[in-house]
Amino acid sequence: MNESTSPVPARADQPQPVSSATAIPATGPSETPWLRRRGLEIALWLAIPIIVWIAFPGYLVLASQIAAIGLFAISLDLLIGYAGLLSLGHATFFGLGAYTAGMLSVAGWGEPVTGLAAGALVAAVAGFLTSFIVVRVRHLAQLMVTLGIGLMVFEAANRLRQYTGGDDGLQGMSVWPLFGVFEFDFWGHTAYWYAVGVLAACFVVITRIIDSPFGLALRGLRGNPQRMAAIGTPVAARLRKAYTLSALFAGVAGAVLAQTTQFVALETLSFQLSADVLIMLVLGGVGYRYGGLLGAAAFLIARDILSGLSPEFWQFGLGIAMILVVLFAPGGVLGGAHWIGARLGFRRTEATAGRPAGAHPAKEPT
Questions:
Q1: Phi/psi of residue 146, each to 5°?
Q2: Structural domain contains residue 222
Q3: In the list 54, 73, 152, 318, which could disulfide-bond 292, CB 3.0-4.6 Å?
Q4: Residue 324 and residue 285: Cα distance in Å, rounded?
Q5: 163 inside domain
Q6: What CA–CA distance (Å, rounded) separates 144 from 273?
Q7: Domain membership flag for residue 154
Q8: 127 touches 243 (CB < 8 A)
């Protein structure tokens, strides 16, 4: 073998190429990409809103809130379940989106789509600016930083009463007809379809992000950031991008809630809302695409029923439900269903879902 064709030994400090099977550890539940299940999913996305519309006409306002808060929970899942970042102040971006859409409406611009875009933009800018601080720390320090940012924004909104309404909330909103045709009526018909449409559109976009190479890199960063950095992944840049995208979708959710209720409460920026949406995500299942939506629906419906039974002690029943879920289904409702399905023989778990064609599962221990 001559010298020109002999292999060149790799340097010890040079990163070596790593196959896709080993570069990204399987650290969380992975599902079949949306396009492979598009028939069933499209059918469900069409059928469920129509069923709710026909069977529960008196609960369309609650259904609109579930759609908005569900999107909020999904945006938090993009941060926690896929990027591995922690937050106790995610309501900051939800509230910024809500106040932006609300203040535009009060100022005389009530067009819903542009108000929605403005809310998303303001929340995304705030997320991008604060991401430089958040991604510098990890674990408990990250929780404290996000909580501190949230408390500062909450107090600023409370002090600026001439713009936000303070404790009384932002009132006097007037949202124009959707596309100049559909009025936002008292019974919530237009608001319902508007909220469901925004939720569906954002869900498709988030799903494509998760299934993209960027989403795959996020799961790798959640599982082993040191290894991802060793193979050349710009860790900080990826995490900042994920944080900004999560803030953007949270802002969209806040703007939708403000426009459908035509009121913005100071609590949209509160720590209580940040804690509530985290509870919803845990109830539904962290890292599952429908976990946030399912958790939000379960939380809000349970709150509505329990508060009707006992306005003073409804949180007691909700607390019992949370304890039971954590004890018997640590992965949330979807995590528990995933575990039961695996035990019953449906083996499309995280070891098989999304595996390239032709790959074989490892033999399970007996």
A1: -65, -35
A2: yes
A3: 73
A4: 14
A5: yes
A6: 16
A7: yes
A8: yes
In a domain, 203, yes or no: yes
Nearest to 99 by CA among 153, 178, 152: 153
Q: What's the token pair of residue 332?
A: 């949330």
Q: What pLDDT, on a 0 to 100 scale, did the predictor assign at position 36?
A: 56
Closest CA to 293 of 202, 222, 215, 354: 202
Number of domains composing the chain? 1
**Dist CA 85 CA 223 (whole Å):** 11
Q: Which residue has the tokens 């035990």?
A: 343
Distance of CA 230 to the CA centre of its chain: 29
Burial letters 267-300, b for 16+ CB under 10 A, else e: ebbbbebbebbbbbbbbbbbbbbbbbbbbbbbbb
Give the separation between CA 112 and CA 104, rounded to whole angstroms: 10
Closest C-alpha to 49, from 38, 57, 175: 57
pLDDT tens digits in sequence order for the chain, 366 residues long:
444 444 444 444 444 444 443 344 444 444 445 455 678 888 899 999 999 999 999 999 999 999 999 999 999 999 999 999 999 999 999 999 999 999 999 999 999 999 999 999 999 999 999 999 999 998 899 999 999 999 999 999 999 999 999 999 999 898 999 998 889 988 889 999 999 999 999 999 999 999 999 999 999 999 888 899 888 889 999 999 999 999 999 999 999 999 999 999 999 999 999 999 999 999 999 999 999 999 999 999 999 988 888 777 888 888 888 888 888 887 888 888 888 878 887 654 443 343 333 333 343 333
**Neighbour count for residue 177 (Cβ, 10 Å):** 14
Amino acid, res. 265? A
Give residue 126's domain range: 40-270
CA distance 78 to 243: 8
Round to whole Å and give the CA distance between 233 and 216.
12
Rg value, the chain, Cα? 22
CA dihedral 131, 136, 138, 143 (to 10 degrees): -50
Residues 124 and 128: their CA atoms lie apart, in Å, by 6
Residue with tokens 């009707």: 308
Structure tokens at 80: 């926690």
